[in-house]
Amino acid sequence: NTLTGITANSNRIGIYLSSSSTNNTLTGITANSNRIGIYLWFSSNNTLTGITANSNVYGVFLLASSSNNRFSGNASLNSEYDLFCGGSISNDITGLSYTKVYNPDDYCFYW
Questions:
Q1: SS3 category, 81
Q2: Cα separation, 30 vs 45, whole angstroms
């Protein structure tokens, strides 16, 4: 699936890929002022480019999402974490600008 020009502001969750969402391409994503801007749960091999995820509680939230999810854009000014990772491995965040990260497993991302 390819989705372009997505705006999801002032919701509980802005963008949500769940339960075996794979091989999706999302471009031009704006997810601001949500509890979670972009949430991937049990998802893999997705590409999200042109991200703007600002002024959320969590900007980009990965839970059990692995295997080369690729991100680029900006996740900043979020109250808890710009980037949160739990139980996920091998995600490419080389093109994502962020400041506050939660990555206790230390293998969620590669740079």
A1: strand
A2: 20
